[in-house]
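Input structure tokens:
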């Protein structure tokens, strides 16, 4: 008997409030025997806390994430750093300034400076000059690399926004699911009340009461699981928003059906033009082509210019003026290999672009099919299954109260309402997540 009391006391601690456990303990301590011999248990409804804050629109969270998300800001910094590369690459090589001292007759400085026209001190400057067009092509390659970084940063931004949207919709789903569990618990209480009336009239049995208590405890378990999952989502959302983890939790707007903003053919066109993955591959093709042009120009020679002024004893000897022009002749074999590699890279980049485009179009098609199917399924739940299940429950409840139906049938009807409501919310979530993926595939970030 002590174990039974302990079990119901633990359940009472979980459900918080006067329940079957306290009532059973009181009856046993009063010496009245097992409680089911006297009256039916009174189960408390699950406590439902009112939201402390109003729902935050998704658009506001997206704007906040774009301003505060560390991953987005870091990617933007990488783009700004890459933007400095063309200026570095296209600038002429550093000039060289030289000082020479030529001694005659002795290693000592200035030896022979006053008595030999070979001794001198000289000052010169030299500059390397790449073949015309090489610097511009190198700058073009660096610009293409910057464009790739820019598309990479856009991919990071869209991925973070996509995670924000998915987390927001999952949070909305869990909040709706917990509300449904509260509503289901109210139905369980309604059934338990009817069972109590029948029990007092001698028409019910102990099993019905314990079955209702079991269902009530299952509601507590499911809500606890949902709260755990919602807490994990809150942590991820606050990471993206760069909020403190102990900041107030986010309230999401309820899920609702949302039609596709564009037609499939328009979405497909946007995949080719605005999909960040496809655009990154396109920038890789442009960079590879610029590297081919540079590899061809590398067959051209580079030049060098230098000028030196040499001064001997100004009283006895004249000054020297030296101008030098250098030409280097590139070896063809390594440059032919570099050109062949660059041309292969162009072909590979184009194939990767085509593969990414086909992959994105296929993924878009799958998401469109899933979104349309979930939209139709949501309509069936909303207009058919759920109203029918509620009507069946009301009819079964009336029959149970009048003694024309058993406890199991009316509880099963309540379970049908619960399951269909949960399936409807899951369908709405599938629909919304599909739209989020379509938005990313089509290059859109609007909520």
């Amino acid at each position: 008997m002590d174990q039974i009391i302990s079990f119901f006391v633990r359940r009472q601690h979980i459900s918080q409030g006067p329940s079957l456990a306290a009532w059973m303990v009181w009856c046993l301590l009063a010496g009245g025997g097992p409680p089911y011999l006297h009256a039916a248990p009174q189960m408390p409804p699950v406590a439902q806390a009112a939201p402390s804050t109003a729902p935050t629109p998704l658009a506001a969270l997206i704007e906040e994430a774009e301003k505060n998300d560390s991953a987005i800001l870091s990617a933007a910094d990488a783009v700004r750093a890459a933007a400095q590369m063309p200026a570095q690459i296209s600038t002429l090589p550093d000039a060289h300034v030289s000082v020479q001292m030529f001694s005659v007759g002795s290693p000592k400085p200035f030896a022979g400076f006053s008595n030999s026209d070979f001794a001198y001190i000289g000052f010169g400057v030299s500059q390397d000059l790449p073949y015309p067009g090489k610097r511009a092509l190198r700058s073009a390659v660096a610009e293409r690399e910057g464009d790739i970084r820019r598309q990479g940063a856009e991919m990071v931004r869209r991925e973070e926004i996509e995670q924000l949207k998915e987390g927001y919709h999952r949070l909305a789903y869990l909040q709706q699911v917990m509300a449904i569990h509260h509503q289901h618990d109210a139905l369980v209480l309604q059934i338990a009340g009817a069972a109590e009336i029948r029990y007092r009239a001698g028409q019910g049995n102990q099993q019905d009461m314990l079955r209702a208590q079991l269902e009530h405890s299952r509601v507590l378990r499911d809500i606890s699981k949902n709260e755990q999952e919602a807490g994990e989502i809150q942590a991820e959302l606050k990471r993206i928003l760069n909020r403190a983890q102990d900041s107030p939790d986010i309230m999401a707007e309820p899920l609702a059906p949302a039609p596709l903003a564009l037609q499939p053919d328009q979405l497909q066109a946007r995949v080719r033009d605005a999909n960040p993955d496809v655009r990154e591959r396109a920038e890789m093709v442009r960079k590879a082509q610029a590297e081919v042009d540079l590899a061809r120009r590398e067959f051209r020679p580079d030049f060098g210019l230098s000028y030196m002024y040499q001064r001997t004893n100004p009283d006895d000897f004249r000054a020297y003026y030296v101008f030098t022009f250098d030409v280097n002749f590139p070896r063809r074999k390594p440059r032919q290999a570099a050109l062949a590699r660059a041309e292969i890279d162009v072909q590979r980049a184009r194939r990767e672009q085509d593969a990414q485009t086909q992959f994105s179009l296929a993924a878009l098609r799958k998401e469109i099919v899933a979104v349309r199917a979930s939209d139709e399924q949501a309509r069936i739940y909303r207009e058919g299954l759920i109203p029918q299940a509620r009507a069946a429950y009301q009819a079964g409840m009336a029959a149970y109260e009048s003694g024309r139906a058993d406890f199991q049938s009316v509880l099963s009807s309540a379970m049908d309402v619960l399951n269909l409501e949960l399936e409807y919310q899951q369908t709405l979530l599938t629909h919304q997540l599909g739209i989020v993926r379509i938005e990313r595939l089509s290059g859109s970030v609007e909520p």
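The two ends are 58 Å apart (CA to CA). The mean pLDDT is 83.
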